[in-house]
Amino acid sequence: MSIIFDVSGLTEFATRLFFAAGLEADKADAVGRYLVEADLMGHSTHGLALAPWYLQGIRDSVMTTRGSYELISDRGAVQCWDGRRLPGAWLTSEALETAVDRAREFGTATVAIGNSHHIGALAAYLSIATDQSMLASVASSSPSGAQVAPFGGLDGVFTPNPVAWGIPTDDQPILVDISASITTVNMASRLKRENRVYDHSWLMDRHGQPGNDPGLLDNGATLLPTGGIDHGQKGYGMALSVEALTQGLAGYGRANKPKGTNAAVTISVYDPAAFGGVDKFIEQTSWLRDACLANRPKDSSHPVRLPGQAALQRKAIAVRDGVELYPGISEGLQAEAKYYGIPFISAKA
């Protein structure tokens, strides 16, 4: 039987849980809000499934619970922060809001953050900019992980290194959220727990042979780069670019050999008003949206859709009817609630 939770109640519970664990109120609010947002959009490996891991990070003093980032540099349209291992959700949302304000002044703005904790689902943050008719990108990498090999190699160097783009239109935004690997570390972990395998050979074992068993990752296997065995130079190029854009610009990354959960994030925001104009920008992006949606489908039962379209539809349904968490997540949350002595949220009537 499905258990449905009210969205506002679930968000309030998640916020209280992280506050009870020691996060300052604004940080608990950001973590709770954006983990739930990921679940609403259907990114269930990057939503509240992460809560027990984050909470363990707080207990182990891996995640910093209080204070602010250190401002490394500020040149108006460009800032660099040392995130001090603060919650990634708080740092990312703060950086996007800062970049929106700066882009309104300078036309474009970029914030590079080193030494952040994990940031979750990139697409969850994009509305901060798109709701204000601004174009935004978020790129992230984790210098403490190495699950993706360079194309032609066997040993992990990179993480999946995702990049997201929020593109405003005259209706819903286009939300692109892609990565340099075919699949993710969190999905591999879920499949291992459930004794399942991938539908396709999205891994490469330590000898260079493709495979679909995520358990191989415990024995030197790597996630295949986007493009796979034969065209993986595409994902390889993207991984290199993201590492330079995040760790390189932040000035902190793999060369520093960080221990524990660590992320680098770079956010850029563009105000179309400073370029060809907001109306002209929206005209172009809306035309492109319509052209894609009107394109002849290969399968008539599956019309062409836009990146983020299904996620926004899932979110709208969840806000209206409630959200159903992936199996096992609510049990993990109940255990954490018991540990911190707070009541677990009741299911929606």
UniProtKB/TrEMBL annotation:
The keyword Ubl conjugation does not apply. It holds the Pfam family Ldh_2. The keyword Oxidoreductase applies. It comes from the Bacteria. GO terms for molecular function: oxidoreductase activity. Keywords: Oxidoreductase. Belongs to the LDH2/MDH2 oxidoreductase family. This is Lactate dehydrogenase. It comes from Thalassospira xiamenensis.
